[in-house]
Predict the structure.
Amino acid sequence: MRSRQRMRRAGAQAVALLVLTSGCGVWGPEGGPGGSGAAGLDSSGRNAPQPVEASVSPDGVQRIEITLTDELAVVPSLVRARPGVIEFTFRNDGVTPHSVTVDAGAPTTTVPPSVDGAAGTGNLNGGQAGTVRVTVTASGRYPYPCRYHLTTGMRGVLEVSGPPLALPTTPTPGAGR
């Protein structure tokens, strides 16, 4: 009798183990019904971030709003812009504190002041926002990591390429008379 109970228990455990471990093998990299498929993966097998273009304001400043989350994510994590002045507004949507730096050359303005030579937000508690303005003169990829959560991979990238933006000209007083 004991032997039969052991066999049933072992069989039930084997079935449970099979069910628990087979999900990934059944669905594969696409993630099952409604999954994004392997097409959305980068070369390392992770989901590739969707780039977001910084918007150009009438004053010639490129602006982008970045959300910082309790899941230790930076959204968007890939921003595209052209050489020139770029202004980031970082908003902490959670309760976990964050501190973001933008290492993209010399900061023009940063509120609060820069952190260790890079333009940074300083500590942002839940619900707070910080603005960082940088001037980028060369094409390249510039990181904007959270200093507190760098080891978790919480970072974004500013991708700068193309010709510099032409700054709007202000009319000279008395011109055109």
